[in-house]
Amino acid sequence: MTPIEANEALGDPECITLDPDPASISGASRRIIGYSTTAQALITVILTDFEGATYGVNAWRAKDRDKRIYRQGGGI
């Protein structure tokens, strides 16, 4: 993933935020699932906050579970 693709997913008006990320052991990150027009795909982006700033930790093409959550409007 590129920063552009991740930022497009974050800017998707239909994006879904899971806070905390259900896969996070520490509970310190959140998962955003959104659409990237550049990638033409749903993207999962992991964000965390540190000292008042938000950082992108990782991003990848959404897997089936995240696609389903997005289609259902966030209902798990």
TrEMBL record:
Protein name, per record: Transposase
Classification of source organism: Bacteria, Bacillati, Actinomycetota, Actinomycetes, Mycobacteriales
